[in-house]
Amino acid sequence: MRKSPYFSLFNHAMFRKQLLFYFITILTPVLIIVTIYIYLVADDQKVQIQQASDESLKRIANNVGNVIEQVNYFSLQLSFMNNLNVMLKDPFQANIYDYATVKEQLRNQISSNPLFYSVYIYSLQDRKVLTTNEGLFTENDFFDKAALELLNGDDNQASTVKYRSRVIKETPMDRSQEVITFYRSIPISAKIPQGMLIINVQKEIFASVIRNMSDVNSETFMILDDDNGIILAPERLNATHSRLLQIDTRQSIDGLTKIESEDGDFFANTLKLDWNGWTIVQIVPYANFKEVMQNKLFSVVKTVLIIAFVGLAISYLFAFIMYSPWLRIRETLAAFVKKADSSENEGEDEYGVVDRTIKGMIETIKQNKPILKDRLIQDLLYHNYYEKSSIELRLDQAGIRFEHAHFLMIVATADLSRPEPLEKNEKHLTLFGLIEQELQKDWRFIGTIIDNARFAYIVNVPKERLDDAFREQLVSSMTKLGQVVYGKLLVSMQFCVSDVTDMENISLSYEQVKRVLNYTPVMNKFDVLFAGDANDSSRFPYPLATQKKLIYSILELQHEKAEACIREWFDQSMIPTKHAYKKLQETIVVMMSNVMNALSQEGYEIDIISDIVDVLKCNECRNRDELCEYILMSIHRLIDYLISLKESHGLNDYVAKAITYMENRYSESLSVSDIAEHIGLSNGHLSRTFKAETGKSPMEYVTELRIQRSKDLLKNQNYTLQKIGMLVGYHDYHGFIRSFKKVEGITPSEYRKALFKN
């Protein structure tokens, strides 16, 4: 059982291509949408992380602002101390007691709040520093010179410096302390500052207060001053925090930024405090974002797989629907198109098959263009069309266009009886090409081959009738053409020209020419015949005198007189320009029939005479000369026959020749026709003459001759019966046995046994 091709679709490259195309068509927009979706989800997730981080940073900023506001408030209270302001106005009048009083007041203010580490009063007039913890120092002897560095050289500069994170390294108690230093110029009411209030806040306690006030994990944020120094940091710094400290957060981080570190990737978000230049940095683990995106991606992948599976099914359905016609086309074309090289076309898809088929069709059309053109001409000649418009359309499709509306038919008949080195097919093709080559010099035409010796041409002419001038032009052109053909190929040509007509009635012109072509036996080799002249109604006298003279010469057994009579009549009366062709041809047939009838009345057998003179063969002659030669040959054979009858005595010479031929050829396949052809008689004449002379038919004589020869061969035991049958002309073993038994009454084997027994 033949397996359906639909069960092995994947074996077809074109089906796989279509399936892949439809699947990609479905999957591509899905992947684009998924990519956009993933991008939007990732962006949305980052926005959410940034929004949450921004909120946290704002809360931390508010807490920082509240704490600093308390410090500012404290500094404002200190700046209103009366003793302090009096001392700053005239520091040179102040004594030790005054300094001690102010120191004690300051100390009492900060002792109740652990946030404050120490307070410095820097007098700009006498360049002395009063501390709450250590006492009074000159500027040169002051241990914390770092606190005064920003003030050196510009007394007004302090007003712009608000906060500073630093480490007090050298103290009278030889211990360092991390502090945040706040500066305020005093007194507040003075236009020109007379001193600076420097408040040192313990950084650790400040950071602890911020952490306690914030609802954010203290490990996830840092506060840096405007020099990227740490204001607040997690208690334990890891690689992530160290990475943040290595970069300038003020320049490198703008919004939510991904940063890589040894502890893993993370997002960093910043908020800069405009009022003091500090930057709050929050750290968001990248793993949180990654986990959310992985969950989303997993869901998307499941969705894409489902869509891909459904899309594959739909693609298969579409590919099946679209491929089915191609498969039927391929199977149909496979019955007509053969691959030139199976290895070259191996794996060829349907597109290749169709493309190769179309190319083959185009090539076939090109090769068959002459055939198609020939078919068109044949249809015109035999009127195989319905209306005139179809003629014009087909001519136009074949690229054939004529200038004039008038046409005539020319049929050229060639005498190909002359032996030539060219094969018969090659000769008539060469002849057709030569005629077209010469004819196109004078005329616009289309032509075809009717048979091996006749060629038809539809010639476009400018005139609507054959006048004398036009006839002379045609005769001149055809005569010149015949001379060229004879000069190159030694082939004589006869031309028959129809009356002028239109394309629609060209078939009638062809019929007119065909009727005239029946009279070629009475035409000369190089005649140009006009079909309209064949209808001449002039009277033609029957050559009765010639007929009587011919019969007399035959009965008198005079070859020369009979031949002279025929030639004289042909020269004087067989002139196509003088008498109609039809009448001439009919006269010849009637005259030869009358000659045969006259001999029959003389007592000669009409059957034998009919075999010698075949009147109907006169119509098969190709021209006047060939007709004359055939009639002369028939007359000579007829006279020879009459002579043989008169000279015959004893055994007829024809019978003797037949017996000799039989004795020499009995081992071959013989027939009456073979024997009659050899001795120059008809089959009937030979049979009648042979039986009259021998009492047997020719084939009975052959049979007896063969049996007699086989009896001689049966004496030799080395020959088998089949071999003996072959040697005496029987190629059929059983035929030999039947013939032997019919003649001898026993079979060959029985004859051999009896022969050797005796």
TrEMBL record:
Keywords: DNA-binding, Membrane, Transcription, Transcription regulation, Transmembrane, Transmembrane helix. Gene3D superfamilies: Homeodomain-like. The keyword Ribosomal protein does not apply. It comes from the Bacteria. The keyword Transferase does not apply. The chain crosses the membrane at residues 20-40, 304-323. Residues 656-754 form the HTH araC/xylS-type domain. InterPro entries: Homeodomain-like_sf, HTH_AraC, HTH_AraC-typ_CS. It holds the Pfam family HTH_18. PANTHER family: ARAC-FAMILY TRANSCRIPTIONAL REGULATOR (PTHR43280), HTH-TYPE TRANSCRIPTIONAL ACTIVATOR RHAS (PTHR43280:SF28). This is Helix-turn-helix domain-containing protein. The lineage of its organism: Bacteria, Bacillati, Bacillota, Bacilli, Bacillales.
